[in-house]
Amino acid sequence: MKIEKLHIEDFRHIKNETIEFGERLTVISGQNGTGKSSVLGWVAQLCDFKAKNKRLNDEFFKEDYSNVFMFCPLNDYNYNYKVKFYYKNENELLDEEKIITTRLQKQTEKSKLRYRTDFDSRGKALDFPVIYLGLKRLIPFATERNVRVKNVNVPDKYINSFSNLSKEILLLIDDKINPEPVRSVNKNTLAMKTELYSHLGNSAGQDNVGQIASSLLSYQKLKDELGNDYEGGILLIDEIDASLYAGSQIKLIDKLYRYAVNLDLQIIFTTHSLEIIQHLEGKLGEETKINHLVIRDGLVNNVINPTYDYIANKIKNQIQKNDEINKKNFICEDKVAQYWVNNLLNGTDIKKMIKVEKGPFADGTIVSMSQTKHSLFKDVGFILDGDVKKKFENKRKPLKTVFLPETSRPETIMYQFLKDLSDNDAFWDDNANFTKQTCFADYPGNNKGTHKRWFEDAHNKKFFGNTYSKLFNRWKKDNKPSVLEFQNELRKMI
Q1: Integer Cα distance of 458 and 453 in angstroms
Q2: How confident is the model at residue 446 (pLDDT cuts 50, 70, 90)?
Q3: What sections of 346-479 are H helices per DSSP?
């Protein structure tokens, strides 16, 4: 059997809200007071396993109503609550539903005043195994009274599995851990015992992991006993992350998934752990689902499979922050190269990823910087003018370098581009008499110095645009393959 949905029609501050369950793992997250534990309580009430098979702690695979819900005479006794479960009976491959309602049973000579759960006419609770681990499990044995070690025989195969599983989750190396059956007022569980300590020396984290491990192995025991009649089960864990550091939380989740697959379990747990949410974000689907409960206008709303950022902002009660990108630094020869690089990257995702610093540096200096192992340049990239390509035609180019388009300096490329441009091109401004003739009137030569002076001429710069943007944009229009090649090379390096 697999439960698919829980529709809470009316329960305290939850009205007409649906919880979706993953086939393996289900996360119930949210701030305090959003009804997370109540979801586990209703699932526990859905099941009433009739078989007499027992768990490793000598208890049955079911949960008493009084251990899950505490109803208030002032606020609850005047209400009849109602929920509906949707589930799939795997033997018949049918989608079925079951309605649970509560009602107050008044005190009589034969019974005391108490709340009851009633099921619809389709029958009583489902004959299916369930284990519920509530918050009582987190009370340390050292603070309890009437603690006693029970005489329960745990088979060797489960002792070894208990030891290995506990050590893997807690990331322990040396200790040999044995299960110690212990009972107190609040708990009936397998504690951890080593050569150095017994149940009284268990931390809250060890106690938590011990009870989760014994529950998983109890299902392994049930599967071993029932053989082909075994149909899986449900494990409910309230505040799964309590008392565990982040590394153990992640390891625990991975182990839970493995056991859920091997033992055909649905494991449903509540948590406030952002580490767990982030770990599962990329794994969401039919097998794993997150239900995040939020309160709006006094009522609980469920957000199914939200992003990690959404949950983090809700849990931390903070406004969404702008994404902070650690930009990669690049060095180019001079101001002109800096302007051109930024223009070539306009409208791309790359522009947000890099920061371009300008020289003046000779190309040989930049090549030397790219080849040094000095720590100053460890995470720096370099952008060289196109004319440097010729120096590396027959040898490997410097590491962490990208060449600007073409095989000349930017000033020379633009000089030749405009020289070849039609007199009728829209780039020219005939009304202002900015024509090819006036643009090149004082610079007829064809050498590097002439091109640089032409490029920086005050009369021309007025028409080239701020940071030469109009000129660069016109060049890009006719040279799209070169632009894409530069962008791809830079993206590849990043």
Answers
A1: 10
A2: confident
A3: 363-371, 410-420, 436-440, 448-456, 458-464, 469-478
Q: Using CA atoms, how far apart are residues 240 and 53, in angstroms rounded to an integer?
A: 26
Q: Cα-flanking dihedrals φ and ψ of residue 24, to 5°?
A: -120, -60
Q: Using only C-alpha atoms, what is the Rg of the chain?
A: 35
Structure confidence at residue 466 (pLDDT): 87
Tell me the average pLDDT across 338-353: 90
Distance CA 341, CA 363 (A): 16
Q: Is 282 helix (H, G, I), strand (E, B) or coil?
A: helix
DSSP state of 68: T
Tell me if residue 361 falls in helix, strand or coil. Answer: coil
Output the pTM of the full model.
Answer: 0.67
Q: In what side-by-side order are the strands of the sheet with 114-119?
A: 14-20, 2-11, 82-89, 94-105, 114-119
Task: Tell me phi and psi for residue 454, to 5 degrees.
Answer: -60, -45
Terminal-to-terminal C-alpha distance of the chain: 49
pLDDT of residue 32: 95
Q: What percentage of the chain carries pLDDT values higher than 90?
A: 61
Pairing of strands 401-403, 148-149: unpaired
Q: What angle do CA 159, 162, 168 make, to 5 degrees?
A: 140
Unique residue bearing structure tokens 């590097």:
448
Residue ranges, comma separated, of all CATH 3.40.50 domains in the chain are 2-136+229-316
**In the predicted model, is pLDDT for residue 113 greater than 60?**
yes
CA angle 54, 58, 59 (to 5 degrees): 70
pLDDT digits (tens, 9 = 90+) for 238-275: 999 999 999 999 999 999 999 999 999 999 999 999 99
Sheet holding 380-384, edge to edge: 354-357, 328-332, 380-384, 401-403
- For the stretch 360-389, pLDDT in tens is 888 788 888 877 878 888 788 899 998 888
Indicate the class that CATH gives domain 2-136+229-316. alpha beta
How many CA atoms does the CB half-sphere of 152 hold within 13 Å? 22
